[in-house]
Amino acid sequence: MVDMARHHDLACLVRLQEAAVEAERAFSPDLVPRRIDPLASRRSFKATLLRGQRERTFVARVGRQVIGMLCVELHRARSRHAAVRRHGFMHSLYVAPAHRRQRVAARLVARGLVWSRRQGALQVRLEMAAGNAGARRLYERLGFRPREVFFTLDLRRPA
Ligand SMILES: CC(C)(COP(=O)(O)OP(=O)(O)OC[C@H]1O[C@@H](n2cnc3c(N)ncnc32)[C@H](O)[C@@H]1OP(=O)(O)O)[C@@H](O)C(=O)NCCC(=O)NCCS
């Protein structure tokens, strides 16, 4: 079952967020913080949950257990000439390993898309590690397509 996160989910969200950062670090060790501060993470989820219209955290549950999450933010373009005035931005998608390949992530993303559309978003965007083949396949199956590529060059190594 997928629904909106509640206050009593805070501790689970912090744990899943830690695991999500850990998973991301495996693909981009230089772009992801070495550790996250659980108190800051809790504060940020609390703000998200309370902020209402602009951000949502969705969770997947099995009984009382939270086994997956997805955060969606609503962004408004500053310029009124922007081609897309409102878009949703998805991040922190994570499903606990024991529950993977059961379409939990697909359901979370579908829910995030419905919410974004209802908020007037014309597009949904996200960023992901280039090497994360599973996530890429998931998003592409849902209709997402890569639009821009983010390059890095490590200046610590001799050219
Ligand atoms: C990526 C992740 C969210 C997928 O969650 P999931 O619940 O297992 O995904 P779903 O079952 O909804 O997958 C739907 C489809 O996406 C594709 N997919 C998902 N995971 C895949 C994998 N590891 N390898 C290949 N394809 C995959 C498949 O096409 C799958 O359909 P299928 O099982 O019928 O073949 C999960 O593996 C995860 O939490 N990984 C760590 C965090 C992460 O990488 N988050 C994404 C950051 S952008």
Description:
Strand 4 (86-95), helix 3 and strand 5 (123-126) form a beta-alpha-beta unit. The mean pLDDT is 93. The chain has 4 helices and 5 strands. It is 35% helix and 23% strand. It is globular and about 55 Å long. The chain has a 5-stranded mixed beta sheet, sandwiched between helices. With 159 residues, it is α+β, with helices and mostly antiparallel strands. Helix 1 (10-27) crosses helix 2 (38-51). The N and C termini lie far apart (51 Å). It binds coenzyme A.
- Strand percentage, roughly? 15-25%
User: What's the arrangement of strands in the largest beta sheet?
Assistant: 1-2-3-4-5
**What's the order of the H and E elements?**
EHHEEEHEH
Q: Give the overall average pLDDT.
A: 93
Uncertain runs are: none
Shape: globular
Defining traits:
159 residues, alpha+beta, five-stranded mixed sheet, 35% helix, globular, binds coenzyme A
SSE arrangement:
Blueprint: E1 2-4, H1 10-27, H2 38-51, E2 55-62, E3 65-76, E4 86-95, H3 104-118, E5 123-126, H4 133-141
Parallel strand pairs: 4-5
Antiparallel strand pairs: 1-2, 2-3, 3-4
Helix pairs in contact: 1-2
Bound molecules: coenzyme A (COA).
Coenzyme A is lined by residues 20, 23, 93-95, 100-106, 128, 132, 134-135, 137-138, 141.
Summarize the structure in short.
With 159 residues, this protein is an alpha+beta fold. It contains four helices and five strands, in the order βααβββαβα.
